[in-house]
Design goal:
Helices cover 61% and strands 0% of the residues. It has five helices and no strands. The protein is mostly helical and 142 residues long. The relative contact order is 0.05.
Length: 142
């Protein structure tokens, strides 16, 4: 057999090998997506999407048949309810009330932090007492 008898080039052989690898990858992806081994990529993608939706629905405490809109609403409601409880609001509070509560708490904390402390009335206070204890923050604008 001479080189002229086999007209296939190395590039063609590599092309065949890569096509076979591609087919094997597609078959494995189809198997993992729980669709037919000969499914096309569109069907494989839909299989993965369905599997993710079902898993997310279960995680949200819903039936696997729940649609994305229902899943999203449940997740938002639970996140809002949990956040409301953390900031001291009722579990059914809306985002506006939650935001106002957070704003009030942050403002109160900052006001308390930077409110000037009453100074001791003793005439024998030392420089250390004037500056405050080392545990208290010093307000540079007071």
């Amino acid at each position: 057999m001479t080189g002229n008898e086999d007209k296939r080039t190395g590039a063609q052989e590599w092309g065949d090998i890569l096509r076979e690898i591609g087919q094997q990858v597609r078959r494995e992806a189809a198997r993992l997506a729980k669709v037919d081994d000969d499914a096309d990529w569109d069907t494989i993608g839909k299989g993965y999407s369905d599997a993710v939706r079902k898993s997310t629905a279960r995680s949200a405490g819903l039936d696997e048949s729940a649609e994305w809109k229902t899943i999203g609403e449940r997740i938002e409601q639970e996140a809002r309810s949990g956040t409301a409880r953390v900031v001291g609001e009722q579990p059914d509070a809306d985002w506006k009330d939650i935001g106002q509560s957070v704003d009030e708490k942050v403002r109160s904390f900052i006001d308390e932090l930077f409110t000037p402390k009453s100074k001791p009335s003793s005439s024998t206070e030392t420089d250390t007492e004037t500056l405050g204890s080392h545990d208290e923050p010093i307000d540079p604008w007071a």
